[in-house]
C-alpha cells in the first residue's frame, strides 16, 4: 500500500472509563477511545515488557498478550475494547527469582538474544502449551508464526519450548493448572 | 580442535546473565525511556522520489491543539554544520563526491521518505494528527531507480553540483591479471545481481534528547556506536564535547549494523531538545523504518574468472556497480559496504591476480545502511556461486574446485589487502562435506531422480571479519579499531567492567564476565558490566563487525592483567613476602602465593586496603584498583571462517524448493560461550535465508517503495525456515590473549550461494544458472524456462 | 501509527441496539468486530471512524451450528462474529465442512485467528483473503440486517470488487448460511503464499458433486488472481456430466488456467500465477473428488 496516502483529517477526541484486570490487579482509568491497548499497558500502566515492532498490522507479534484466555496482539485492539477483560502480560508470567517454566526454558536454551520479541513470543508459547502440552517441532513452528524473531533463527526458541513442555509435564496436575490460570 | 581445560568460565555454555530481566519484561529499551515533560516528534516525509519542494504550509498543523512546534529544514540547517563533517567521512582512496545534507530536506527531496517537517506535540497521537495537516507542494523531477541508468553521462544528476551520479569510484587488486587471463583454459564471465535487502531489526530506531544550559545535551539513543555519535554531535552542533552525553540504553532490540550510522534524525532530535528546552522523544515507526534504514546489498557484479582446466582460479576481474541510494547517511555514505564487499570478494580463496573496479552510484532511494554481512552478501553470492558454475562448466566436482582454491597458509594477505590471520579453512570445509555426507547425498540424488524427485546439494563459505584493527580502521573510517575496557574492583570486592561498545543482544554481560572471572579468579556473579554511557565508559568505536569477542573481550582481559600486577604487589606486601609480581594464583576470590598455598589474601581485603584503607598499601603506592586497557591485535585483521552446506528439493514445475538440511561448520577461535556462538550462527543463517528468498525492498518506476509494512517485507517466521545444524571447528587465533574471535556478523553471507548451488545441483541441467537474487520460486521458474 | 481521534465508542450487547446505532450514525460509524483489518486501516488513517460500534458483545451474531430453515432445508449457520479459530478447529467443520477449515487454518497466525471473525473478513472483501473463496464455492447466502429490514444475498452477489460489497452503511452482516450439500458432494481449498500465513498469491476452492463417478455439478472459485475471487465457469461446464478420471481433472485444470484472468503484482506475475494454478488446481480438484466419495465439503 502507499506509505503516505492522503488521509482523513482529525476530528474530536472522545474518552471512556474502563476497568481491566492485568496480571491479577484491577486498574480503572479514563482513556482516549483511540488509544491502542498496547499503549495503555505500556504508558498508562507502565508495563513496558510488552513491545511494539511493526507499528501497523500486527505482523511482528512483539505486543502479544493473553486476553481472556487467548493470545492476541495488543496493538490490534483499542484499550476500550478491553473493558472488563482479564489480561496476562509478560510481567505476570513470572518474577526473575520465580520464573515460569516457559521463561526458564528460554533462559536455559538461550531462546533470546536482544529480548525484544521474547515477551510476545512467550505469550504465544503460553497459549500453545496450555492447549497442547506436547507439541511437535512442526506444531511449535506453526504456533509461533505470529511472532517474528530477528536474532535467534528460532532454533533455540524451539528447544526452549520443548524444555518448558518437559518441565511442565513432570509437574503434578495442580501445579500445572496454576501455571496456566489465564 | 581446541579445548579449554585450564580455565573455568571461558568455553562454558552458561545461561546468560542478561536474561532474567528480559524474560521478566524488565528490559529497558529506548521506547521505555520517558523523561518528565517529554514531547513527541512525528516526521512528515516526502511522498515523491525526486522533487523540488515548492511550498510548505504548516499553519494548520501549528494551530492544532497540543502541538508544541512545527519545524522545517532551513531552521534546522541554520543551527548546525552540514552533517558530513570530515571526521565521519571515510578515506578509502578513489574518487569521492560528498553530498551536502542536513536533518530535514530544504528545497529538494531525493527519495520517498526523505524527512521534510518535524511536528513536536504533547503526545505521539497528536503529533501524528497534526502531520496530516501539513501541506507540501512538490515539483516532480525525473526519477532514477536503476544505477546503470544513473551511470550514463546523459542521465539527470541527483546531486546537482556533482559531475556525475558516481559517489565513489575506485579500483582494488594486485597481481598480473592480464597474464592470468591470457593463460586461462577457461574464462567464466557472468553478471550477478544481489538485490536490495537487509537486516531490519525488530526494534526500530528511537531517541530521547534533553538539554539544559548547565549539563548540556543528553541523548538516549539505541546506537551501536555511542562514542562516535557523541563526537559527531559535538562537531556538527558545535557544542563542547563535555556538554554532549550520549547514552545507549541497557537493552537494544537488535541492530545488525542498521544502528551504526549517524542518521539525520539523531541530529534533528538533539536540535529540537535544544530549541524547546524540553525532552523530545522520537520512536521510528515500522513504515519509516522500512523506507529509511536496513536497506543494503544492491550490487551488480560483472565477474570474470580466469580458470585453469583443473579448476584453479588464476585471476579475477570484476566490475561492480552498487546502488547506494542517496548516499547521505553519515560514516558510511552508502559506499563503505560495497567497498568492503569488493575488498572481501575473494573470500577464503587464494586468488593472486585480482582487479576490481567499483562504482557506487546514487539513485532516488534511501542510502544503504550497514547490514550484517556488511557489503559481502552479494559478493559472496557472486564469488562462491561462480566457483560452482566453473565446476559445472569444466565437469569437475565443485568440492575439488573449492579445495583447490581455499587459502591454506596463514597469515595470508589477499590481492585486495585483506589479512587472514589464522585458521584451518580446508579442515572446516572437509568437516562440512563429512557432516553433509556428501557422497551419500550425491548417491541419493541419483536414486531420487529416478523417482522424479530433484534433490541437490550445495555449499559456500564465508571468511568473516572479526573486528578490524586500527591499522585498517583509521584509514577506513577515521576511527580506531582497538577494543577498550576498564576493570575496577570496588569497595566490596565486586568487579565492574566498563566497555565503550554498546551491545544489542550479543550477550556481553555474560561473555565479558566469563573472561574476567577467569582472569581474576572470581565468580561470574561478582562481576557487573556497564556500557552505553559515554560519560562513564572508555572511548571505543562500537559494537559492530564482530569486535566483541576479538577486541573488547581482549581489552577486558588486558585490563585485568594490568590490575593483577598491582594486586600481587599488594598481596605480597600484606603477606610480608618478598615476591616478584607474577607469583600468585587468582582463584576463589583469593590471591594465593604459588610457593606456599597457605599464604593467601582475599580480594575483598585487597580491595579494602587499596580503596578504603590506603594507609596499609605498600609505601608510595597509588590508591585504587582500576585499570583501562586498549587492545590492538598484532595483525591488520582477523577473520573467522564459516562453511555452509544445504540439501534442497526443488519442484521443477513451480521453482519452489524446500531446504531438507542446512549445516554450518563454524570457527570462532576459542568460543567463550558455545551456546551463544550457536545462537549467532542460527540467527545469521535464518537472516540469510530471509534475505535470499523472502525479503526484498521493491520500488516501482516512480520510486515508490512497495514494501512499507511487514506484510510486504517478509521476514521469515519459525514456520518458514528449517532446522540449522551447527558443528564447531575452532582454531584459536594466536593474535588475541584468549584465542577468541568474534562471530555472527558475516553469517548470512554464504547463504545465497549455498542455496543457489544446491538448487542448481538439483536441477542439473546444462546452462541452468541462477544469477539474480532473490531466489524466489518465481525467479527459479523463470530461470528454468528461459534457458529452454 | 495511531488512529485519528474517535469521538464515540459503543459496545451494544443486542442486535437491536446495534441496528439503532447504525441507523443513527450510518456513514460516520465503523463496525469493529475482530479488528484485525480495521485497526491497521485506522492506524494508516485510510479508514475514517469518528464513531466505533464494537459488536463483540452482540449475542445474536455469535450463532454457530447446523440449523433447519423454515423451508425445511438444513444449513450450517455461521454467525458473523464467529472467530477464525472456531472455523479452523470446530469438530463440525473438520468432519463435515473441511473446505472451511482448509482455509481458516492458514489465515495469518494464531493471534489473528483468535480475534479475527468471518464477518469482518467477508465485509472487508480482500481478494487475497482466505474465507471468501470457500464461502463462494459453497453457494452460501449472507444475511444483512438493518433497521429497515433484512436483505439476503448469495455470496456471488455479495462481493462487488476490490474491497467492495453490497453492504450499506446502516447494515450489518448477521450470519452466513451454508446449504447442506447434495449427497456425493466434496469440496477443498488450497492457498499458495509467499510466507506461512500470508495472503494468497493464488487460492483455489472447488466443490464437486458425484453420482456413479459422474460429475453432477461443480463450483470453482479462484482467489488472489484479480480484484475479486473469480468463478471458473468454463471449468465447471467442462466437468459437469463427465466421468471423473485423473485425466479429466488434469484437463479441467488446463481449462481453468486458460479461462482465468490473472493480474500481476509485487507478489507474483500473471504468468507465474497461472503456473501455480496449473500445479495446484489438479490437487484441489482431486481432493474435492476424494472428499465427494467421503461426503465432506
Protein architecture, described:
By secondary structure, chain A is α+β, with helices and mostly antiparallel strands. Chain A has helices at residues 37-44, 101-108, 118-131, 137-143, 155-169, 173-179, and strands spanning 15-22, 25-32, 64-67, 70-73, 86-88. Chain A folds into two domains: 15-92, Beta-grasp domain (Ubiquitin-like (UB roll)); 101-179, [2Fe-2S]-binding domain (DNA polymerase, domain 1), CATH 1.10.150.120. Chain A is built from six helices and five strands; from the N terminus they run E-E-H-E-E-E-H-H-H-H-H. In chain A, helix 2 packs across helix 5. Chain B folds into three domains: 19-27 and 482-631, Aldehyde Oxidoreductase, domain 4, CATH 3.30.365.10; 33-141 and 203-253 and 259-292, Aldehyde oxidase/xanthine dehydrogenase, a/b hammerhead (Aldehyde Oxidoreductase, domain 3, Alpha-Beta Complex), CATH 3.90.1170; 296-470 and 634-786, Aldehyde oxidase/xanthine dehydrogenase, molybdopterin binding domain (Aldehyde Oxidoreductase, domain 4, 2-Layer Sandwich). Helix content of chain B is 29%, strand content 25%. With 297 residues, chain C is α+β, with helices and mostly antiparallel strands. Chain C has helices spanning 15-25, 38-43, 84-89, 91-96, 98-104, 110-115, 118-124, 132-137, 155-158, 233-239, 246-259, 270-294, and strands spanning 8-10, 29-32, 51-54, 64-68, 74-79, 141-146, 149-154, 159-161, 164-165, 172-179, 185-192, 202-211, 214-223, 230-231. In chain C, the strands form four sheets. A five-stranded antiparallel β-sheet of chain C has the order 4-5-10-6-7. In chain C, strands 11-12-13-14 form a four-stranded antiparallel β-sheet. In chain C, strands 1-3-2 form a three-stranded parallel β-sheet, covered by helices on one side. In chain C, a hairpin with a 6-residue loop joins strand 13 (214-223) and strand 14 (230-231). The termini of chain C are far apart. The mean pLDDT of chain C is 96. The B-C interface holds B 124-125, 128-129, 132, 285-287, 651, 653-654, 694, 698, 706-707, 711-712, 714, 716-717, 719-720, 776-778, 781-782 and C 1-2, 4-5, 45, 109, 194-199, 266, 268-269, 272, 275-276, 278-279. Chain C: Residues 2-183 form the FAD-binding PCMH-type domain. Chain C: GO terms for molecular function: FAD binding; oxidoreductase activity.
